[in-house]
Amino acid sequence: MNARRTDLTQARTPRGFADRGAAELAATRAMADRIRETYELWGFEEVETPFFEYTDALGKFLPDQDRPNAGVFSLQDDDEQWMSLRYDLTAPLARHVAENFQKLAKPYRSYRFGPVFRNEKPGPGRFRQFLQFDADIVGAPSVSADAEMCMMMADALEAVGVKRGDYVIKVNNRKILDGVMEAIGLGGEENAGRRLTVLRAIDKLDRLGPDGVRALLGDGRKDESGDFTKGAGLDEAGAARVLSILEAKRSTNAETAEALAAEFAATPVGAKGATELKAIADLLAAAGYDGRVSVDPSVVRGLEYYTGPVYEAELTFQIAGDDGKPIQFGSVGGGGRYDGLVGRFMAENTPATGFSIGVSRLQAALRALKGETAEASTGPVVVLAFDRDRIGDSMALAARLRAAGIKAEAYLGGSGMKAQMKYADRRKSPCVVIQGSDERDKGEVTLKDLVEGAKAAAAIADRAEWTESRPAQVTVPEARLVEEVQAILARHR
User: Which residues contribute to the annotated binding site?
Assistant: First the structure.
């Protein structure tokens, strides 16, 4: 008897990370292709930046300031410089533009797709690695670029299958809130931390409601678990003034922009924000995007680097929550203008605006919308190894199928026919190819349609009937292999 090994390494996935199987990857690839086509239709070109950036290039705009390492995964290189895994795709773009500024045609329209990393506490649905799909315009100072980003975001959602009416792109301007905070005494660099707390409080409106936001604007809030979050420390009048922004929403974009201008233009920065929003509302109306894109003062975005218009893609349809009650799916992406980010690397600021789509969240939304689970795409045709000493013949048949553009493989394991059929089922193979010595001598192959076979098997009462019917199985001349397999695939496409 062999002794049991005691030196085995435990197989485990790091906390906050996950493996992704064929079904999810196929869905991601299909969705990414549709988004990519939309971006390129609008004249954007793809660029890829490294996973790692020098930590100082990421700057102070980090996603989790409460953790000692500022929310990023970092390491020190052999030259003693610190590098960090990128936490979004925007900061690397700013570095790329600054480094290649003279080479790029400006305005520079680009998109990026790939994983980002957050060194945050993981939890249900909260991962430390996830996919983003970004698009940005760098070098366009006019809010027409912001309006265009909102329009393109709407087109991208429709391209992946979200119907008009099941989403809305909300747009606001951070300058309006900046003007209010200046008016209540939160201007200046010394109040940067409190301003960020205000932003993050309003950003939680959908989840916490007005009362929860009011608590975070004041002394703070204790959640259901008993954890306390310190607030911005505003008095009642200051909190009420901030919350009054949310009351400016009207039935049309033009009316909302006018209400914001009338109520929040007391400071120069607030007046500029209201003027920019009115310009965006006019552009949306002219391009026919009213209803798809909505001026909404509740949108602020939680990152500090936004300097003007901010926008968010929200899905408006309802799904059943864990308790069975209907809930709205919510945000699947957002962005805004960040005119100061590229300027960190250059003598002059460079205007920029862009947005990011949360790929995994959008995929989950599409499955919920269509009532589907993540199904793998059809697997390859499997050529069974009927005679182990003639595996070369099986490989030759598979090669003929591949030459015709059909996914195919020869079975290379050591199991018998029953196990080979189970293997083909698990591979989601549409059909298998069988060629024993009898078929080979006659110049024939037997094709078994596994999809039709499964349907027939469900309707057959006993083994005798199964044996007699041989469902979904046909023997054809070997010369017709490709043609017959193509016919089976066409039946199930």
Answer: 88-90, 118, 132, 136, 301, 305-306
